[in-house]
Write a structure and sequence with these properties.
Two copies of one chain form a homodimer. Chain A is mostly helical. Chain A is globular. Chains A and B meet through helix 1, helix 5 and helix 6 of A and helix 1, helix 5 and helix 6 of B.
Amino acid sequence: MPTMHDAAIPTITRALKNLIHVLEKAAAHAEAKKIEPAVLIGSRLYPDMFPLGRQVQIASDIAKGGIARMAQAEGPKWEDNETTFPELIERARKTIAYLESLKPEQFDDGSRTVSFPVQGQPKTATASKYLYTRVLPNVFFHCATAYNILRHNGVELGKADFLGPLEA
Amino acid sequence: MPTMHDAAIPTITRALKNLIHVLEKAAAHAEAKKIEPAVLIGSRLYPDMFPLGRQVQIASDIAKGGIARMAQAEGPKWEDNETTFPELIERARKTIAYLESLKPEQFDDGSRTVSFPVQGQPKTATASKYLYTRVLPNVFFHCATAYNILRHNGVELGKADFLGPLEA
C-alpha cells in the first residue's frame, strides 16, 4: 500500500531540489550582471510580503516541520540566519537531507491524527488531509513565490526550472 | 487502498476553489478602488510571463487535462475566451465540476502508465509519478502565480486565502 512517505518525501525533496536549481541560476545571473546578490535576496513582490530569503526559509520550515509531524518525529530547529545564495542553497540541502533521513516505517497510510497550528490555533486532521491541504500547497506556494520574485527581477527562468526534469 | 482519486481530486478541486476565492477578492478590490478589471486580468510579473487571465486558464487546463489522462478519459476542450472576473471564475467552476464528475473507479493505485507531453516531447510515467511531479506542482504553480500577480498589484490577500480553511 502506498504510504504517506511515498506521497510526501519524493515530492517535497524534488520541489526543494528545483528551488536549489532556481537559486543557483539567480546567483549566476547576479554575478553575470554585476547585481549585488543581497538585492535579489531582499526583493519582494509587495512591501508587506516576505522577501526571497525568507521564502526559502519558510519553504524549508514547512517541509521539515510538516513532515516531522507526519513521521511523529522532532524536526531540526535552525536559526534563519542565511543571507547569501550559498547559505540559502545549503539550507535547502539540509532540509532535503533531513527528509531523506526519515524512514518509510515512520509514516502511515495517512489515517492517523496529526496536530498542528493554523494561524496560531491548534488543529487536528488526518496525516493525509494535513499533507494534501497544508504541507504540499504551502511548500509549493513558497517555492513558486521564490521563483516569481526572481522572474520579476529579470532572472531568466522558465517553468521547466520550477518543475525539474521528469527523469530526476 | 488509497487511489489516485483520493490524492488528486480533493487536492486540486480545493486549489481551484481557493483560486475562485482569490479572484472574487480581486474583483471586489477592483470595484472598490475603481480599477478597470481588465487591468488586473492583463497584469503580469514580467513582460514575457503570462498575465493573470492566462494563469487561470492554464491552471484549469493542467487540472482537467492531467486528471483526464490519469482517469483514462477525454477531458473537455474550452476556448480560452474568458476576459472578465466572472468568466474566469466560471472557468474554474466548470473545471471543478468536470473533476468531480469523474468516478473513483476510473482511477488506479498510481501504478499504471500515463502518456503526456513535456515541452512538446512525448513522455510516459506511472500515474503516481505524473501526479506528484507534474500535475500537482503545475496546478499549484499557476494558482500561486495568479495570487502573486494580484498581491503585487495591491489586492489584500494573505496565505490563508491561498490555502483555504482547513474545514472546507
